Amino acid sequence: MENSSESNWQRSGSSRGLNSSAVLNRYSRRIPNDQDSEKAVLGHSNRGGTYFREGDGAVIRSVESKDVSLRQWLDSTDRVVNVLDCLHIFMQIVEIVRLAHSQGFVVQNVRPSCFVLSSFNRVSFIESVSCSGSGSGSGSDSCNDESNNQTAEFRGQNQPEVNSNLRKLSENNWLQSGSLYLEGSNVEQAEQKKNPFPMKKVLQMESNWYTSPEEAAGAPSSCACDVYRLGVLLFELYCTSSSAQEKNATMSSLRHRVFPPQFLLKWPKEAVFCLCLLHPEPDSRPKINEVLHSEFLSEPRDNLIEREAVLELKEKIQEQELLLDFLSTLQQRKQESADILRRTVSFISSDIQEVTKLQASISGKQGLNSINDDSASSGSRKRIRSAEISNSLEPEHQENAIYKSPRLMKNFKKLESAYFSTRRRAFKTSVKPLTKNAPMSSDGKGSIVLTEKSSANNFPPIKRLSEGKQTGWIDSFLDGLSKYLSFKNLEVKASLNQGDLLNSSNLVCSLGFDRDGEFFATAGVNKKIKVFEYDSILDENRDIHYPVVEMSSRSKLSSISWNNYIKGQIASSNFEGVVQIWDVTRNQAYRELKEHERRVWSVDFSWSNPTLVASGSDDCSVKLWNINQAILLLHLVDGTSVGTIRTKANVCCVQFPSDSGNTLAFGSADHRVYYYDLRNPSVPLSTLIGHNKTVSYVKFVDSSTLLSSSTDNTLKLWDLSESTAKVIDCPVQTFTGHMNLKNFVGLSVCDGYIATGSETNEVVVYHKAFPMPALSYKFNMTDPISGDEVSDSDQFISSVCWRTQSSTLVAANSMGNIKLLEMV
Fold it and tell me: What is the pLDDT of residue 348?
């Protein structure tokens, strides 16, 4: 359409081009007089609409939603002809046509459907409804018949500028097609039922009504054709009809210059002027300037000028009222924001006072102990020490301390979010009846971010706060902050390269330490479980590290779990759907559990019941096994599950809490986490909803706090103790900063620290108190030629595991490289 539109523009010798303005400015369309200079240039295309220019600048009056099509206005059944209104509208359209003719343009679309009226009868020129390409019910036949007549002749020499302006206007939608005012075919259908002038039918006939005799005979459009159309328009302005049939008959008679008798009687002067404009001979019609300066339009000019002044005054008053409403609304919103900010500052100030008192109390105890230990010291020395303590409490010292931590400054917004989250939870616990807990918002990446409004609104006035406990939150927040800042780096203590030259795939799927942290095991797609002694790996005198035990499976291994009671016992799951129980001391599997029908992703030993094992599979089930039931006379016997939980989606992970064998959590491919009481496995205790993709891992931080990992790039922390609802959809914390979109990257928890892998080949460590990473370490490859470490973007961390009660963790990536890392 764009190319066809551009091809219809024709050139002549004029040096003037078109501008990308949309419609005439409401203040530029004054009643013209002899001193008026040229103010606009008009053009039209099938796609773009109308373009105007005043001098060298753009003049625009935006089309508003309350503007109405002139066609609809004319056909309104309750319209009463007002002489000044009709003259005012006609004058504006004549001026638009004059401006176009003065620049060498033939407007062609001088038809009511091509104009819209504002509430003050301001006229704006738009693209015709019947010629829009939107398919809004305009009648495709008429569009096709007029395809060569709906494009203005371009007589300038700046065609590239026109094409560019057309594209720009189309993109910005400054001029909408007529469907904006008809609101599509649904509105048309409603109009056909309610309106005696069906818009679709009228638009189909309109082009015939406004076609000049010479155009009907096949002659090209000319300026005289525009004058003829002005005569038709003038007749429509003064002649009303009660039905579509009457309208069509009246307009058909107009083709022969036959007017209704009542029109001749009521509007004789207008009828004479219409006859002049509708003369069948183009040369006998007046020119557009003659029309503008005719006696018919000159006599009421003073009244029209006065009317225009009144309308401009009303418009200015309306605009001032609009501006006043905007400013009032803005003031109200800013005042609300200021009130919220004052509440927030007051709340923080009260916390500062509490922390200052607590710090002074601790410092006073420290000073007292120092005095008792050093009673022989001089008084001046006591004063110096007291002054040092006092100086340490000054705000400047505190400010310097926080600025010395780049990690805190870099993540200050998230730290602020964590502070408000901690305060909310503390207040909810201490003053629960006094306030309601407002929901937390999300920043789009999963991290919980409280806005200024939401953070303040969660707390009552300071007077109420004093009634409850205010210092309980300090210990938890300070503990999290201290642990977050306790370590600066992850340092490599030892490395193992488990790449098998005879096996092209060395992906390590699972890692695990035994109950005492003396041994750790690896398992993966190489179908082997390898057990290493931790202390021997740290021996720097050894260049090559061998496993103390190596056990082979028939299938690729997906997960392992050490028994926390029986030291040498490991459970494993594989891609064939088999769960195996291994005796590390005997270097063999002594039991196979084969009820799963598809791949088993996860297996876990119960902490409180060492004979209970859970497994989750692609067959949409979780199975519970008792490893003692099938042991008979030390013979290997296939086991039978003691319980099954059916789900609607694949189960990717299972986990027992550390203090109970009666509950179980598992994550599913339906983006949810399920928490079950095994004594009633028919329905879950809670369903945790919040992830957007598959839940790949779940881990218990403590008996009432659960951590979940998903391939939506987030970890989420859930509080299972405070909710009595079946569905929990608001996590306590959402952790972001690692990348995990498609792979199992590992998850491990120890003493509040959370380790996870990333598809950037990094190990990322969080602390449960804050949503941002505390530490990270990137695995790099060693170039075999240069010996330098190089990054490999195709690799990812596949498994991580903390060593019990320590700051050390073991991590492996998809190449089979294993590193022992320590927080330092």
Answer: 87
d(C-alpha 229, C-alpha 590), whole Å: 99
Element (H, E) at 298: helix 295-298
Comparing CA positions, the residue from 210, 195, 211 lying closest to residue 244 is: 195
Contact 586, 629 (CB under 8 A): no
328-346 per-residue burial string, b: 16 or more CB within 10 A, e: under 16 = eeeeeeeeeeeebeebbee
Token pair listed for 493: 């203590």
Q: What is the per-residue DSSP string for 419-437?
A: HHHHHHHHHHHHSGGG--P
The continuous run of DSSP H or E covering 601 comes out as: strand 600-605
State pTM to two decimals.
0.58
CA dist 202 and 275 (Å) reads: 23
End-to-end CA distance of the chain: 67
4 — pLDDT class (breaks 50, 70, 90): very low
Q: Which helix (H) or strand (E) holds 301?
A: helix 301-373
Give the Cβ contact number of residue 526 at 10 Å.
24
Give yes or no for a contact between 614 and 622, defined as CB atoms under 8 angstroms apart.
Answer: yes
The mean pLDDT of 340-363, rounded to a whole number, is 85
Residues 534-547 have pLDDT tens digits of 988 887 666 678 89
Cross-strand pairs, 552: 528
Question: Residue 776 is encoded by which pair of tokens?
Answer: 């990270």
Cβ burial of 478 (10 Å; 0-12, 13-18, 19+) is middle
Per-residue pLDDT band for 34 (boundaries 50, 70, 90) equals very low
- What span, in angstroms and rounded, lies between the C-alpha atoms of 472 and 273? 90
- Partners of 510 in the β-ladder: 523
Residue with token string 């095994």? 678
The structure tokens 């937390």 sit at 440
Percentage, residues of the chain above pLDDT 70: 68
- For residue 583, give every residue at least 6 positions away whose Cβ sits within 8 Å of its Cβ, in sequence order, or none: 568, 569, 589, 590
Quickly count: other Cβ atoms within 10 Å of residue 87's Cβ.
Answer: 23
Is residue 805 within 8 Å of residue 798, measured between CB atoms?
no
Given CA atoms 565, 569, 574, 576 in this order, what sign does their dihedral have? negative
The answer for residues whose C-beta is within 8 angstroms of residue 118's C-beta and 6 or more apart is: 26, 64, 66, 67, 124
pLDDT tens, position by position, 733-762? 999 999 999 999 999 999 999 999 999 999
Which residues lie across from 706 on neighbouring strands?
Answer: 700, 718
| 219: Cα separation from own chain's centroid | 56
Beta strand pairing call for 775-778 and 621-626? unpaired
Q: Which band of pLDDT confidence, cut at 50, 70 and 90, is reported for residue 788?
A: low
> For the segment 415-430, what is each residue's pLDDT rounded down to a tens digit?
887 788 777 766 665 5
